[in-house]
Design a protein that fits this description.
Strand order of the largest sheet: 2-1-3
CATH class: Alpha Beta
Structural class: alpha/beta
CATH architecture: 3-Layer(aba) Sandwich
Strand content: 15-25%
Mean pLDDT: 86
Largest sheet: 3 strands, parallel
Number of strands: 3
CATH superfamily: Response regulator
Shape: globular
Number of domains: 1
Order of helices and strands: EHEHEH
Helix content: 25-40%
CATH topology: Rossmann fold
Number of helices: 3
């Protein structure tokens, strides 16, 4: 991935926290994709994809754990225990 910024999905339903995370990550050179809900987050991991996901586990509606289970088949992002990591 030479010359390309790492794409980070920030899935957080609190607008202020999501914005703060985006600003800090962008300052460190990451490309940030924001999502306030699971549906938008699933779109983000599918097209064009993300390298890392920061997920609020206590989302309204679909919780973060359910989101992660739904997102795994749509992304090549490694996860804990993944041999590709």
């Amino acid at each position: 991935m030479v010359g390309m910024a790492t794409r980070v999905l920030v899935l957080e339903d609190d607008d202020g926290l999501r914005t703060s995370l985006r600003l800090v990550l962008e300052d460190d050179g990451y490309e940030v994709v924001e999502a306030a809900d699971a549906e938008t987050g699933l779109e983000a991991v599918s097209d064009p994809g993300v390298d890392i996901m920061l997920v609020d586990l206590m989302l309204g509606g679909v919780d973060g754990f359910t989101f992660i289970r739904r997102a795994r088949p749509r992304t090549e992002a490694p996860h804990r225990g993944d041999q590709r990591a």
